[in-house]
């Protein structure tokens, strides 16, 4: 499925600074513009597999060895487990409560695969890791309260056992991101500029936070970080020291003025879900305005695949309204869930993955 890197769409930076000087992202940064419309791509057809249990609000999914684990936002039985080979429902697990293996306030964006047979989630400011045993029982491996109570951290991603990459509070650091050590309770560094502008130029703090919202990703080997703006067709790639490697703008219009003025009529949702591996970034995007498209059964998201240098490898539309997905490199497939298709799981084959 993957094509070679689509370099014929890359336009020299110096030419585009002339063409789009009024919308330049940050003249102090090296910017690669990849001005193709990812929304005008071919549609690929996946498999829709009916399951014998209705999901309540499936939003995220991870693959663990021979299993798929779906995060289903309900009071009890929060996680639904399926066989990855035939999508058969196996069991449910996860109760509300304050016990070590119970959950009270899960941040769904932190539900990620930890390794081949375990996952990690942040629940009520505690990092929890669970291992799926041979007896199909989830065992608590690790629990650690985040040592930062005086300011919020969002989109937290693990780099190694104790070091994490996160979106930091804008007003505290004036930077986009922080690297934290949860064992030492230290902020190791802060980095990332808001397009070279003082964040006070965004007039309203509440929608400044929302409209500059972003997804994050870390390569499996911890060498690269990525930040992907929800309402801007822009993402940035950093190395493990927080040095900017590349900034990619993948639409001609940056939408930066719409974000600053809170112009909801033209404010589009671009990426809303990111997965990553050692080699690739998988970006699921909406290209829609408003917030109701998630509930549209005819919604067709765009999946684009990039390497960690910021080259576009491939992109295509999905024929189903996928709202969350996971990547299985062993099976060369992606698996998805949809909040409008509560009795189905989805599979797309990517033979060149």
Question: What characteristics describe this protein?
Answer:
353 residues; five-stranded mixed β-sheet; 7% helix
How is the secondary structure organized here?
Elements: E1 10-11, H1 13-19, E2 31-34, E3 43-44, E4 47-50, E5 58-64, E6 67-72, E7 79-83, E8 89-93, E9 106-115, E10 118-123, E11 126-132, E12 138-145, E13 154-158, E14 163-167, H2 170-173, E15 177-181, E16 186-191, H3 205-211, E17 214-218, E18 224-229, E19 234-239, E20 244-249, H4 256-261, E21 268-276, E22 280-289, E23 302-307, E24 312-318, E25 324-328, E26 333-337, E27 344-349
Parallel strand pairs: 2-20, 3-24
Antiparallel strand pairs: 1-2, 4-27, 5-6, 6-7, 7-8, 9-10, 10-11, 11-12, 13-14, 14-15, 15-16, 17-18, 18-19, 19-20, 21-22, 22-23, 23-24, 25-26, 26-27
For the CA atoms, what is the radius of gyration? 20 Å
Largest sheet: 6 strands, mixed
Binned strand content: 35-45%
User: How many separate helices?
Assistant: 4
Content-based structural category: mainly beta
Shape: globular
Number of strands: 27
Mean pLDDT: 81
Q: Pick out the low-confidence regions.
A: 4-29
The N- to C-terminal Cα distance equals: 8 Å
Summarize the amount of helix as a percent range.
under 10%
In short:
The chain has 353 residues and is mainly β.
Describe this structure in words.
There is one protein chain. 7% of the residues lie in helices and 45% in strands. The protein is mostly beta strands. The strands form six sheets. It has a six-stranded mixed beta sheet with strand order 1-2-20-19-18-17. A five-stranded mixed beta sheet has the order 3-24-23-22-21, with no helix packed on it. It has a four-stranded antiparallel beta sheet with strand order 4-27-26-25, with no helix packed on it.
